[in-house]
Design brief:
single chain, 231 residues, 7-stranded parallel beta sheet, 6 helices, globular, binds NADP nicotinamide-adenine-dinucleotide phosphate
């Protein structure tokens, strides 16, 4: 009998994180998924129907002590995959010249510093040959930024990408795969109703693209169609 794989998803209450949890459950994985609050918890309903294969943990990702406490609670768990999904955005009109210092800091701390803290703390729970993945965006690509828009969100994802490159350089020998994932432009609270893709068009592709690279060490930046995204 083969042992099911285990994934930890950070930020799974709604949108792409919720869909990722459901997709891996459907593929027979054990899923540990984090929420900030149990209010209106769709994931809790999924957990009740999962025959114990979905466990819910609580995490406010910007709280470094909470990340350390989660690591402690999961210290006996061996993960095949860590997927850091949580992020925030202000929408397409987000411009650096109109943004307060506090809002700029909130976006950078949530989208760049906090995912890296999660990777640093929880990465060691991933077995050798497993994968540490972080949700990025094609908007994080410096090379593809010809149009502007989403200015600070873009900068936060570009910072995240660069921090992952530094992490990869520091962990070159540790035998884990590293992934920065672009899910496409998807209709969620963040993506909005004009987005070109439904969750059901993005998420199976994201999971397939990760599966295709599972066990390959080194950092890769790719999209839901499994195409490489330029840095
Ligand atoms: N949708 C798109 O078109 C698109 C495109 C490219 C990349 N992405 C990326 O895909 C990921 C998911 O996006 P989405 O569209 O699903 O967004 P979403 O619908 O706004 O969901 C965001 C998720 O992140 C969680 N979260 C936010 N801040 C958090 C924090 N400080 N601590 C813990 N959890 C936090 C939210 O939890 P709460 O429910 O508690 O707020 C929610 O579960 C993000 O990394 C986003 O940047 C999205």
């Amino acid at each position: 009998m083969t042992v099911p794989s285990t994934v930890l998803i950070i930020g799974a209450t709604r949108g792409l994180g919720l869909a990722l949890a459901r997709e891996w459950l459907q593929r027979g994985w054990n899923v540990i998924a984090t929420v900030r609050s149990s209010r209106q918890c769709e994931l809790c309903e999924t957990a009740e129907k999962s025959a114990g294969r979905l466990a819910i943990e609580h995490l406010e990702m910007t709280d470094a002590a909470a990340i350390a406490a989660l690591k402690q609670r999961l210290s006996r768990v061996e993960l095949d995959l860590l997927f850091v999904n949580a992020a925030i955005a202000n929408g397409p009109g987000d411009r650096v010249d109109r943004m307060s210092t506090e809002e700029f800091t909130r976006i950078m701390v949530t989208n760049a510093l906090s995912p890296m803290r999660a990777v640093e703390a929880l990465g060691p729970l991933v077995r050798r040959g497993g994968t540490i993945a972080v949700m990025s965006s094609s908007l994080g690509s410096v090379a593809l930024n010809e149009t502007g828009g989403w200015e600070v969100y873009r900068a936060s994802k570009a910072a995240l990408n660069t921090l992952m490159r530094s992490y990869a350089a520091r962990h070159a020998e540790d035998g884990r795969g590293l992934a920065l994932v672009d899910p496409g432009w998807v209709r969620t609270d963040m993506g909005g109703s004009d987005a070109t893709l439904g969750v059901e068009e993005s998420i199976p592709g994201v999971v397939d693209a990760l599966a295709a690279r599972h066990g390959q060490p080194g950092l890769r930046y790719f999209n839901y169609k499994s195409e490489t995204v330029p840095w």
